[in-house]
């Protein structure tokens, strides 16, 4: 058996990301799913470019603020205590709009965990 209590604020942010990303999954050495906390100021996007995943399912649960998600089917606005879910092969880009008045804080969970499964998506193609 194994148990851990992890304070996301004690995790160093992942370098080279467009917003603050703290990987709870990496800190806990999780092997079956990824878990991250994102903090994005107005004008910042979450984790990577407009993308999709071949295998990974993703869920973004908004802890505070409002998250915008661009998809080929339209724009979604996700409020505090709401979740946005993307199935595999479903392009999406999560971000905090430039004109937002507050930062957004999001808990993101994905399974299976992947390092390089994100495939860039070009909406103009």
TrEMBL record:
<dbReference type="Pfam" id="PF07883">
    <property type="entry name" value="Cupin_2"/>
</dbReference>
<protein>
    <submittedName>
        <fullName>Cupin domain-containing protein</fullName>
    </submittedName>
</protein>
<dbReference type="InterPro" id="IPR014710">
    <property type="entry name" value="RmlC-like_jellyroll"/>
</dbReference>
<feature type="domain" description="Cupin type-2">
    <location>
        <begin position="38"/>
        <end position="109"/>
    </location>
</feature>
<dbReference type="InterPro" id="IPR013096">
    <property type="entry name" value="Cupin_2"/>
</dbReference>
<dbReference type="InterPro" id="IPR011051">
    <property type="entry name" value="RmlC_Cupin_sf"/>
</dbReference>
């Amino acid at each position: 058996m194994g148990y851990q209590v992890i304070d996301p604020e004690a995790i160093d942010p992942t370098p080279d990301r467009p917003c603050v990303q703290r990987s709870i999954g990496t800190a806990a050495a999780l092997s079956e799913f990824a878990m991250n906390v994102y903090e994005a100021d107005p004008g910042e996007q979450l984790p990577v470019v407009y993308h999709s995943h071949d295998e990974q399912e993703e869920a973004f649960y908004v802890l505070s603020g409002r998250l915008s998600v661009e998809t080929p089917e339209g724009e979604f606005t996700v409020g505090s205590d709401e979740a946005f879910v993307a199935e595999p092969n479903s392009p999406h880009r999560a971000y905090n709009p430039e004109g937002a008045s507050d930062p957004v804080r999001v808990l993101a969970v994905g399974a299976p965990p992947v390092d390089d499964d994100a495939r860039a998506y070009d909406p103009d193609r």
